[in-house]
Amino acid sequence: MPTLPSKSPARPWIPKAQPTVRKSYQRHAERSPLYDSPRWRALRRAQLRQEPCCRACAAKKRVTPAVVADHIVPYRNGSDFFDARNLQSLCTPCHARKSAQEGHVRRKQAASTHQATPSLRKCPQWLEMAFRG
Ligand SMILES: [Zn+2]
Predict the structure, then answer these.
(1) 89 with 108, same domain?
(2) Å from CA of 71 to ligand 1 middle
(3) Are residues 69 and 115 in the same domain?
């Protein structure tokens, strides 16, 4: 007697569902492949072992376990990616705040040098300025 296959047949034309929750190191790996290197992982581990509490929280007299080894001077700004002296331990909220601040500064700099970001192109004032010549 014929039986139905236990698994649905392979349908390669249908893209596989991507996991929606990604770990922070995976998001970092998208930004720079250096985050995926064994050298970075060892450096990050050493940093968090040496400074296990969030530095920003400590400045506010709070004790919070750190989970992020953060570049004090962003490596995009030309600092050495693997310079241990340029690292600080942060908790997730403090790191998010710092990253958001850095992104804000970066966008502001891009706007001032007329390197409009896509979001800026949607800005009517920018369009007006761009087409006025
Ligand atoms: Zn913190």
Answers:
(1) no
(2) 15
(3) no
Domain of 76 in residue numbering reads as 23-96
11 in a domain, yes or no? no
Q: How many domains does the chain have?
A: 2
**105 C-alpha vs ligand 1 centroid, how far in Å?**
21
Q: Residues 6 or more apart from 90 whose CB is under 8 A from it?
A: 54, 55, 56, 66, 67, 68, 70, 98
In angstroms, the CA 114 to CA 133 distance is 13
Report CA(68)–ligand 1 centroid distance (Å): 10
Give the pLDDT confidence of 31-71 residue by residue, as tens digits. 788 999 999 999 999 999 999 999 999 999 999 999 999 99
